């Protein structure tokens, strides 16, 4: 795996010598943020050696290198999901690329369903913690990328930035919620009984992504901020049937608010 990542990084460096200060993984329907970067270099992921191809609508499949307000950024436009049939290590391939590029900071985003009625479709939620119901961990196996064998998970989503992010949201007129992200394998949506269990067990929003990348980022020493775009109520909270079209439609509707929040974070946070 490590040699494959090294080949991927060598390929990327043929097109850009930018040393990103920050990476951002863009969830379903949230890819347009990458288009706002200045001095962009776009590298299709299908051209990168060994990079797992994204097959999901709303995930374009490109790494975009550029600048935002003078900050050097690598944006992942189209993530890889476990439910696509890839191994859990393939899902985190892009984070190992970030590690080899020595990127110290990751903003991870996703589209998520609400298991908590206080979270409404169109809300943005700051992820305060997560519950891994994938029953898979990307760190299982040989320590190709070095120690620690047992990384501490007490501050996965860097709490020292929460107050600042809340202030950024307030100044920009965004009612930012806080909550715990629950991740499942998908690709089927959860049943009403499962949603009831998730909420009772402490989950506020439900995703089919994000947690593997975050675990890998923590292992590599990166600081992490997570933001969920709440795109729908989970099964049983309303009688509506769920569809991916609803997810991408809601994400597109709130992309201006999302871009404003992410821009404020990048412009305001001391990453070092």
Question: Your description of this structure?
Answer:
The mean pLDDT is 92. Strand 7 (177-183), helix 5 and strand 8 (205-207) form a beta-alpha-beta unit. The chain is built from eight helices and nine strands. With 272 residues, the protein is α/β, with parallel strands linked by helices. The relative contact order is 0.21. The longest helix has 14 residues, at 255-268. It has helices at 2-12, 88-91, 93-100, 162-171, 192-200, 211-219, 244-253, 255-268; strands at 22-26, 38-44, 62-68, 71-77, 105-114, 124-132, 177-183, 205-207, 223-233. It has a five-stranded mixed β-barrel.
Radius of gyration: 17 Å
Indicate the proportion of strand residues. 15-25%
Q: Largest beta sheet: what is the strand line-up?
A: 5-8-7-6-9
Total strand segments: 9
What is the tally of helical segments? 8
Low-confidence stretches: none
* The CATH C-level class name: Alpha Beta
Distance between the termini: 29 Å
**H/E topology pattern:** HEEEEHHEEHEHEHEHH
Structural class: alpha/beta
Blueprint (SSEs and pairs):
Blueprint: H1 2-12, E1 22-26, E2 38-44, E3 62-68, E4 71-77, H2 88-91, H3 93-100, E5 105-114, E6 124-132, H4 162-171, E7 177-183, H5 192-200, E8 205-207, H6 211-219, E9 223-233, H7 244-253, H8 255-268
Parallel strand pairs: 1-4, 1-5, 5-9, 6-7, 7-8
Antiparallel strand pairs: 2-3, 3-4, 5-8, 6-9
